[in-house]
Amino acid sequence: MKTFPLILGLCLVAIALPAREIPQVTPAKAGLSETKLAEVDQFMERQVAEQKIAGGIVIVSRNGKIGFFHTYGLMDCEAKKPMAPDTIFRIYSMSKAITTAAALNLCDAGKIGLDDPVAKYIPSFTNLKVATTNGLRAPSRPVTVKDLMLHTSGLTYGNGPDALKETYKRLKPLESTNLAEMAEKVSQVPLAFDPGTAWAYGVGIDVLGRVIEVASGESLDVFLDKTIFKPLDMTDTAFSVPPEKASRFAVNYTRSPDGLKVTNTFSELKYTPPTTFFSGGGGLVGTARDYMRFLAMIECGGTLDGQRVLKSKTVKLMTSNQLPKEVYPIGFGNEKRQGVGFGLGFSVREELASWDAAGRVGEYGWGGAASTHYWISPKDKLIVVTLEQIVPYQWDTEFGVKGIIYDAVKK
Description:
There is one protein chain. By secondary structure, the protein is α+β, with helices and mostly antiparallel strands. The protein has helices spanning 4-11, 34-49, 95-108, 145-150, 162-171, 179-186, 204-216, 220-229, 288-299, 312-318, 396-408; strands at residues 55-62, 65-76, 81-82, 89-90, 130-132, 135-137, 253-256, 259-262, 285-286, 303-304, 307-308, 331-332, 335-336, 340-342, 347-349, 364-368, 372-377, 382-387. It folds into two domains: 1-88 and 375-411, no CATH class; 92-239 and 275-369, Beta-lactamase, CATH 3.40.710. The chain contains eleven helices and 18 strands.
């Protein structure tokens, strides 16, 4: 794809946003070095030229102002369609922070309690069992709403003891027709451990979506639209892509020895017809603009443009480590992310370590399965969102631009 560098040059743009948006200014006026940020362009251009990504977006806000919003490469290689600022992406697990924020909105309203047992909202959770080498047994305590948010519930994506793996594979909860059906299936899957005793990534936020439905009396899509999307003017974030926006939907790719290939990975999540299964853990699509507005609300303590979504004390629970010492740090399998804890919705950097060495203490964020990523550094008043569509998750962009962007921050 020798045309990529030429197309890239045409697609590298800065976008003037409407007055109601977070104002966009020059890098210097946002307290960023334009010279240093040029290295982000160079890195992303290499990624495209080497066919590590088809295209992508990097957007940087500092001091409440967007000082960098650049697009790279293609959103569709086959159609040779350039990446655009309003391209719609599968954000997969970036959905989790949004769903958690919606549940916390209900907590602020007194309709959900963090320490409430999930069985209060989903009665079949009364019957949960823990898988052990000696068979199944009752958990030491009930799974709580807070456990779902922290990934300390014992619910996984099918990883764990054989009894868990076999039941999860047989029931396929994430292929359900709606959240009520999904929750009933999950309640039959054994837990990987006693609630609160370990950290494991899994379907907990999807279950949280069902808790939201029960507590609010509304389907998750309706509640998110009313509580998050409309107040924050997130006009392109949803569980499906309507026909009139289909031309803006990026193609998903995987790397191969022969270059980038279109992938059907995660095909159980359908986006172009309307869906009835609203996966709060991984089912949303959205744009760079929309997600930046969501994160700006978080950085501003729960409010944006006069719209309060969360109480400031609630945001502090999201953006500070809530894991007990015996569970900290988080990890995937044998990989421990030293220095990284978890709040109610975000990973949180508690101390510097060799893992993600460019990170800073106090930084919080997360990502999605198609190599999308974001992070916020409160001390630097910095928000960064990087979007691309490559599965499985690749660290290249996250690790490649983070140090550059921090170096671009003017003291």
